[in-house]
Design goal:
Number of strands: 14
CATH architecture: Beta Barrel
Oligomer: single chain
Low-confidence stretches: 251-255
Radius of gyration: 18 Å
Helix content: 10-25%
Number of domains: 1
Order of helices and strands: EEHEEEEEEHHEEEEEE
């Protein structure tokens, strides 16, 4: 199955599956693209696993050729800090900062025993379609509901190849605020950022999100949640949310 983005003549070309529900590309797809480049660079340098990622979404990214620019902010003995930014025709769209930390075994810390899950056996909730009526990023995920407050996402189409750990997690994590969206009033709820911490490398095909959201009358909101794989908790996610009147685009409208 083709990737969500492909590299062509130095530009990243998004497929239709990179689209979000409204104008522009899905934030999780954009975040995954930026972070996957940094993770591949970190692997080549031996910097360890991505511990923390912070992505700021500055403008909607179009369904058009995109360019990235990476930078190493610090490369220390234990931690490295890197940045990547996404642009279209000279306009800055998003910035991602990732901190990588090498493992250092510490004695006296006992692992937490957790219940292993089998998301592939859980129920599939009704399929969500994008308001524009076309393909979108949610179509790259096999969604399951275990009935315990955790929504599971099976990764069916990688953002880029080879798939990298943090970039894979960012796609499901970006849905956190939407999973807990109130039914009333009807509002659009774009997140302006996405912050994820991982305490260990995810294992297997599934990423679980246990969401918690809050909206207030000033038009602000926040999403947060715990992240899981089949073996247990792997990290946490948070994002700031701006609330807007909902205006569904016409079916088939472009981005």
């Amino acid at each position: 199955m083709d990737d969500v983005f492909r590299l062509e003549d130095g530009d990243w070309i998004p497929s239709e599956f990179a689209r979000g529900p409204f104008a522009g590309l899905q934030g999780g797809a954009v975040a995954g693209l930026l972070v996957s480049e940094l993770e591949r660079h970190a692997a080549a340098e031996g910097w360890g696993l991505a511990l923390s990622t912070s992505v700021q979404f500055l403008r909607p990214a179009p369904l058009a050729p995109l360019t990235t620019e990476t930078e190493v902010l610090r490369a220390g003995k234990r931690a490295a800090v890197t940045r990547n930014q996404l642009s279209h025709e000279g306009t800055l769209l998003a910035v991602a900062t990732v901190t990588f930390v090498q493992d250092l075994p510490v004695s006296g810390i006992e692992p937490t025993e957790e219940r292993r899950r089998e998301p592939g056996r859980y129920e599939q909730p009704p399929r969500r379609n994008a308001p524009h009526g076309g393909p979108w990023f949610m179509d790259t995920l096999d969604v399951r509901d275990g009935g315990d407050g955790i929504r599971w996402f099976g990764i069916e189409r990688p953002i880029t190849s080879p798939a990298t750990p943090m970039a894979t997690v960012l796609g499901p994590a970006d849905w956190t605020h939407g999973l807990g969206r109130p039914d009333s009033p009807k509002l659009a709820d774009p997140n302006i950022d996405l912050v994820v911490q991982l305490t260990r490398r995810p294992e297997g095909h599934w990423i679980g999100v246990e969401p918690d959201t809050r909206w207030v009358a000033s038009g602000r909101g926040r999403g947060r949640g715990l992240l899981y794989d089949e073996a247990g908790e792997i990290g946490a996610v948070s994002m700031g949310v701006t609330l807007l009147p909902f205006r569904a685009p016409a079916a088939g409208a472009g981005t």
